[in-house]
Structures are given as C-alpha cells and as structure tokens.
From TrEMBL:
Protein name (record): Uncharacterized protein
Superkingdom in the source lineage: Bacteria
Membrane-crossing segments per the record: 12-33, 45-66, 115-136
Keywords carried by this UniProt record: Membrane, Transmembrane, Transmembrane helix
Organism: Streptomyces swartbergensis
Upper classification of the organism: Bacteria, Bacillati, Actinomycetota, Actinomycetes, Kitasatosporales
Keyword Membrane: yes
Length: 152
C-alpha cells in the first residue's frame, strides 16, 4: 500500500494563514459596510464571502491535521465496506482532501467533509462577482461626480 500522509508543517502554515485572512477580511467587510459610500455593500459583501471561503478552507485543513490516526483509519472510518480494496492514499491541500485510492482504480474521500469544496468555490465566485460590482459602482460614481472625465 502506498501512502502520502498530510505533512504537519504545511497544514499548520495553511491553517494560520487562512485564519488570519478570514479574520482580516471579516473586519474589513463589516467596516466597509459601516462606512457606506458607492459600492460599500458590494465591497463588504465580497470581503465577507472571502472570509467564509477562508473559514471553510481552515475547516478542511483542520480535518486533515486532526487525522493523526493515519490515513488508513480515516479510510476505514469513511467506508468500512470498501476499505479492504484500498491500495493507497493521496492528499490534496487545495482543496483540502484525503482520497483513498482503490486497487480497481476508483477512489473515495475521507476525513474532510464533502460539502467544504462546494462552499469554498461558491463563496469565491460570490466574492469575485461582488468585487466586480464594487469596481463598477466606484467607476460609475467617479464618472458621475466628474462629468468632464466621461468618454463618448
């Protein structure tokens, strides 16, 4: 059986970096909404969506880190009926995942809840969309405040 155990140092660095990012984005998001102005809600919403994506990422990395019993136990706990066919493991840090590879060629996930990747992806898409809306709002308000800068 081949294995690729999650390395503790990259997990810890990722957890700390994502947690600090989530904290910073949360603070910025609420303060941006509180200040008001053109695009404030979109900017704040983008920051809060990014913070939620970072929290989901931390959750996934923590799930990998807490799997100190080893990947074999995680694979057995995730699907006891398929565990006898496991030939190896693979770890992904983005998105966080532990895959139990079977000798038949398939795989199944263990340790990290399956809903985290869709949550991270959805929040990232929402954040990017809101950033684009905020930029458009800022440009529109700048153009309306300074009509001489309009291009026709």
């Amino acid at each position: 059986m081949t294995s690729s155990y999650p390395a503790a140092l990259p997990l810890l660095i990722g957890i700390v970096a994502a947690a600090v990012t989530a904290f910073g984005l949360t603070g910025y998001g609420f303060s941006a909404i509180g200040r008001g102005g053109p695009g404030a809600v979109a900017r704040g919403g983008a920051a809060l969506a990014g913070a939620l994506a970072a929290v989901a990422y931390v959750w996934g990395l923590v799930a990998l880190f807490l799997d100190d019993s080893g990947t074999a136990q995680a694979c057995q706990d995730a699907n006891p009926t398929l565990y006898g066919h496991v030939s190896g493991y693979s770890v992904s840090y983005l998105p966080p995942a532990l895959n139990c590879r079977m000798s038949s060629g398939g795989s199944y996930s263990a340790a990290v809840p399956g809903f985290l990747t869709p949550v991270m992806t959805g929040c990232a898409v929402i954040a990017v969309t809101l950033v684009l809306i905020a930029v458009a709002e800022d440009r529109r308000s700048t153009t309306s405040e300074h009509p001489e800068k309009r291009t026709t």
